[in-house]
Amino acid sequence: CARHNQTCHDPTHGSGRNETRDWTCMCAKPSTDFARARAVLQCTYDECSDADVRGRCPEGQACEDRHPLAVGNWECVCDVTGQRATAAEATCDVDECATNDAANQRKCQQAGQTCWDDKDPAALDNWECR
């Protein structure tokens, strides 16, 4: 186990005939992978299963770990926009002047004005020409 950076767990600590080969190799936390009487071939780490990691994504964002074979690459993903940030809170801005191929920006420019939006993903259709 140690050669693979895993810990060995022997529940019986015995050497009797019925107590051999009952040991397991266990991956380091937050992985829950283990293998009986051999090393785990590949440890996986769903970091979002850890409440401390999951809690770092605020309301309106989901924790996602798309690469469970590595540590430190979990992401916060905005529910509304899908914007992501690795190991941090994501910025969930929605710039309605820039979306839809900048159609709103063009409307304002045709009137000789500039498109303005507060970029709040919870308040859509509130852009203005100024």
Question: What layout of secondary structure does this protein have?
Answer:
Layout: E1 7-9, E2 24-26, E3 34-36, H1 51-54, E4 61-64, E5 75-78, E6 84-86, H2 99-110, E7 115-116, E8 128-129
Antiparallel strand pairs: 1-2, 2-3, 4-5, 5-6, 7-8
In short:
It is built from two helices and eight strands, in the order βββαβββαββ.
Textual characterization of the structure:
The strands form three sheets. The chain has a three-stranded antiparallel sheet with strand order 1-2-3, with no helix packed on it. It has a three-stranded antiparallel sheet with strand order 4-5-6, with no helix packed on it. It has a two-stranded antiparallel ribbon with strand order 7-8. With 130 residues, the chain is α+β, with helices and mostly antiparallel strands. The chain has two helices and eight strands; from the N terminus they run βββαβββαββ. The N and C termini lie far apart (66 Å). The longest helix is centred in the C-terminal third of the chain and has 12 residues, at 99-110.
Q: How many β-strands, per DSSP?
A: 8
Give the SSE order as H and E letters: EEEHEEEHEE
What is the helix content?
10-25%
Q: Tally the helices: what do you get?
A: 2
Taken from the alpha-carbon principal axes, the silhouette is rod-shaped
Biggest sheet, spatial arrangement of strands? 1-2-3
Main sheet, how many strands, which sense, barrel?
3 strands, antiparallel
The fraction of residues assigned to DSSP E strands is 15-25%
In angstroms, what is the radius of gyration?
A: 25 Å
Question: pLDDT under 50 segments (min length 5)?
Answer: none
C-alpha termini separation: 66 Å
> Roughly what is the average pLDDT, rounded to an integer?
85
Give the helix/strand class.
alpha+beta
